[in-house]
C-alpha cells in the first residue's frame, strides 16, 4: 500500500485548542447530530457508522458525521474498513466545563416530552 493511500484515509480533526464553542454549538444544533452524540455518549466505546440507524440518506449521514468531526465533537478513525466514531468528551469537558453534561441532560429531557 502506498503512503498516499494511507494518508487519504486519515481524517482531519481540529486540535484540542482549535475547538471553538460556536462550532460545537452549531454541530449540536441539528437534531440528527444531537442524536448521534447522545448515542455515542451512551456507548461504552467507539461505534461504527453502520451502528447508527438514522432516518436520512447515507450522504446526509456522512455530512452529519463530517460536521461533528470538523467541529471537534467526535473523533473518527478507520479500523480496517469500518469508520469508528468516538465522542471527544474529555477534551470538550476540559474546554467547556459542564457544557456536554448540560446539553445531553437537556436533550434527554426533551426526548421524553410529547413531540420530542
Average pLDDT rating: 90
Which runs of at least 5 residues are low in confidence (pLDDT < 50)?
1-7
Q: Which class in CATH terms? A: Mainly Alpha
Sheet with the most strands, sense and barrel status: 3 strands, antiparallel
Q: Count every helix, treating DSSP H or I runs of 4 or more residues as helices.
A: 6
Helix content: 40-55%
Please give the CATH architecture.
Answer: Orthogonal Bundle
Radius of gyration computed on alpha carbons:
15 Å
Could you give the order of the helices and strands?
A: HHHEHEEHH
Number of strands: 3
Straight-line N-to-C gap: 48 Å
Strand order of the largest sheet: 1-3-2
Indicate the structural class. Answer: alpha+beta
Number of domains: 1
Give me the CATH fold name: Arc Repressor Mutant, subunit A
Shape: globular
Query: Strand portion, in percent?
Result: 5-15%
CATH superfamily: Winged helix-like DNA-binding domain superfamily/Winged helix DNA-binding domain
Question: How would you sum up this structure, described in words?
Answer:
With 116 residues, the chain is α+β, with helices and mostly antiparallel strands. It has a single domain, classed as Arc Repressor Mutant, subunit A, CATH 1.10.10. It has helices at residues 3-7, 21-27, 31-42, 58-71, 89-95, 99-112, and strands at residues 47-48, 74-79, 82-87. A three-stranded antiparallel beta sheet has the order 1-3-2. Strand 2 and strand 3 (82-87) form a beta hairpin.
Structure summary:
The chain is an alpha+beta fold.
Topology, pairings included?
Elements: H1 3-7, H2 21-27, H3 31-42, E1 47-48, H4 58-71, E2 74-79, E3 82-87, H5 89-95, H6 99-112
Antiparallel strand pairs: 1-3, 2-3
Helix pairs in contact: 2-4
Amino acid at each position: 500500500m502506498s503512503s498516499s493511500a494511507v494518508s487519504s484515509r486519515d481524517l482531519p480533526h481540529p486540535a484540542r485548542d482549535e475547538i471553538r464553542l460556536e462550532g460545537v454549538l452549531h454541530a449540536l444544533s441539528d437534531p440528527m447530530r444531537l442524536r448521534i452524540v447522545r448515542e455515542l455518549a451512551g456507548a461504552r466505546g467507539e461505534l461504527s457508522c453502520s451502528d447508527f440507524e438514522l432516518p436520512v440518506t447515507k450522504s446526509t449521514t456522512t455530512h452529519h458525521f463530517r460536521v461533528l468531526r470538523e467541529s471537534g465533537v467526535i473523533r473518527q478513525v478507520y479500523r480496517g474498513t469500518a469508520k469508528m466514531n468516538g465522542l471527544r468528551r474529555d477534551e470538550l469537558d476540559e474546554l467547556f466545563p459542564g457544557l456536554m453534561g448540560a446539553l445531553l441532560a437537556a436533550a434527554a429531557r426533551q426526548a421524553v416530552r410529547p413531540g420530542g
